[in-house]
Amino acid sequence: MRYGLLSRMLFVGMDLFYGRKRTLSKFKVLEVIARVPYQSWEQVSYIAMTHKYREPDFARRIFDFISEARHQQDNEQWHLLILEELVHRKGVREGFVRYRLLPQLIAFFYYHVSWLLYVIQPRLSYELNAHFEDHAEHEYMEFVRENPELEATPFSSVFERDYGSFESEADLFRRIGLDERQHKEESVTRMEQPRFN
Ligand SMILES: [Fe+2]
Ligand SMILES: [Fe+2]
User: How many whole angstroms from 55 Cα to the centroid of ligand 2?
Assistant: First the structure.
């Protein structure tokens, strides 16, 4: 995809703060941010629901949209929890400011950009998310390509029952990458439709 100004600023900013190299810690930052558009859409939709619940067809469509956003949010949540588990197990050291504070600040900012764009024109918000997800998909796939040893690294997790079991960490990251592709495609589909359709 050709990225817009906002998404390019975000990706360049992330490279500046976290380096160009793809690492588990950098992916974690990505996942902290990835959840917030879905949270913002859910929030805005519940407000819409409060105003429109007397129109059953419209309310139904809002609810379907909320369900989709919640499902995507949960999916991003598993990505984050699994990455955190891997970082912990591999004993990766992470500084508080760069890996706790800053991601939360970026996520806070991104949340507000996301709902504001949604209120101005939903398409803009979906487009920003589609770019974000497209970038995430490519980053995960490149990560697997750059680290062939992942093919021989067995995967185990306390979240296997929630997210799935995989023979290797390479398979895990490919699955996460495919999730990001699906998120992108859902946003692209929404871009082509009016509000809540
Ligand atoms: Fe994700
Ligand atoms: Fe995603």
Answer: 31
If you measure from the C-alpha of residue 79 to the centroid of ligand 1, how many angstroms do you get, rounded to a whole number? 5
Exposed / middle / buried, residue 197 (Cβ in 10 Å: 0-12, 13-18, 19+): exposed
Identify the nearest ligand to the CA of 38 by its number.
2
For 19-101, where are the alpha helices, taking DSSP H only? 24-34, 36-52, 56-89, 96
What are the sequence ranges of the domains in the chain?
5-191
Query: Could you read off the pLDDT of 10-68 as tens digits, one per residue?
Result: 999 999 999 999 999 999 999 999 999 999 999 999 999 998 888 889 899 999 999 99
CATH of domain 5-191: 1.20.1260.140
What Å distances lie between residue 149 and 79, 132, 136, CA to CA?
Answer: 20, 27, 21
The tokens of 194 are what? 């009016």
